[in-house]
Amino acid sequence: MKKTMFLCVLSIFLLIGCSEVAFNPNEEPAGSQSNYDMKLSMDNNGLFSADVSIDILNVSNEKWDELKLYFIPNMFTSENSPYLNTPSKVEIESVKIENQDASYSLEKDTINIPLKTSVSPNESVSFQMKYHFTLPTDGVRFEKIDSNYHLAQWYPMVPTYQKGWNKQDYTSEGESYHTTFSNFNLTVDIPKEYTLVTTSDEDRLLSVSNNTFRIEKVKEIFVALLKDPQVIQKKSDNVNIRVFGTGESEEFLDEVSETAVESFHYFENIIGPYPHKQLDIILDGLGMEYPGVVTAGSLKGRSVTNERIKEMVIHEIAHQWFYGMVSNDPYTDGWLDEGFAEFATSLFLMPNEKELGYIDLSNKLEPLPSNLPLHKYLNGTQSNYIYGQSRSNLAKIFNQHGGKQTAEDFLSRYFTLYKYKEVDTEEFVRFMKFYLEIKDDSLFESWLALENTKNE
Ligand SMILES: [Zn+2]
Q1: Which contiguous run of DSSP H or E holds residue 212?
Q2: Domain span at 104
Q3: Which of 193, 226, 259 is the last residue of a domain?
Q4: CA of residue 439 to ligand 1 center, whole Å
Q5: Is there a domain that residue 221 lies in?
Q6: What does pTM read for this prediction?
Q7: Distance from the CA of 384 to the center of ligand 1, in angstroms?
Q8: 238 and 216 in one domain?
Q9: Residue 2: which pLDDT band, with cuts at 50, 70 and 90?
Q10: For residue 436, is it within any domain?
């Protein structure tokens, strides 16, 4: 094709493209951008040592005079969790800025470091920390379960910087930490008898003592060390889906594996492509999502049914899109990933001909919006609003606007527009009103606090 003709065709394409995309997504800028270099080792007695180095680029428009990082392992020490039978031990060996010893404070899950030299926009700062720790037996996601080790949020994590460091106090009710897409080099050195399961899609079943991974564009890194796990591997398209059990029946593992493959395939089809080559499902611990890995409870000694665990698996897999790629602050807008994981799960489970299930919760719950910051809910009540009320109201909206097919098309469009971006409630409502041609806020006001009502 001649160049002029090519340009002509190209400009026609662009014109068509522009007239179709009359909607411009606005993202919430992350303000910080991090590259992590992490070494993690465990000895035969369950003592972990970590050496973490982070290059943090200031992509905000403010000058930084201090750094604030999450350090969640510290929440499980006897000082911060006196009720634990076996709390974690945490010992920090060194904290450095630009390879020089730095003064710092550690309070609860916050590391605070005043900077001797401030960091201007577009400049970066390097942070190093060496520390040692053991895992508690009754922690939350950071715990030893029988002879297996689950390491979630085990390293110093860089918050987003949005009008200051966006670092909230830790709470085990909901997720109080918010990080943005980052790159990681991870080296893990563990005793040979453990199977390593991580966010990386290159961990193999055969354990080698030294494992080095490069993982790009993920919000966090999860690591599990499993002793003699059961495993089933199946392919969905080109993705390897592994299910790890720690004492389940073969039959149940098979069922879970089938559910995982079917729901994964459905989500890839209706929402968009999954970014990794592998997805791991560990049947143990609390139901939880991490990039490339999910945990989803076990039948062992728990009063939970097969069906409940399978639903949990579907929900956590849906998070690979809503959390894993479309980001939101789980402290202030947790419903955007929880409500959507619930909603996508219900789409997968529903028969085609049926209406999306709407449950009127207004008589059962104190009326509160689904997008309050976590500390504004009474303990133990937030999931009613963040999961249930939001899912139900999404169903109600789609029942009035095209049903299941429109809901599926919407998820795909929403994902394509906001992939690797951060969304908040206002932006979501702006997009939904545009997409479904909704004229006012009346479908949202009963369950979301919108900007004009939020600060009352
Ligand atoms: Zn969830």
Answers
A1: strand 210-218
A2: 32-226
A3: 226
A4: 30
A5: yes
A6: 0.93
A7: 13
A8: no
A9: very low
A10: yes
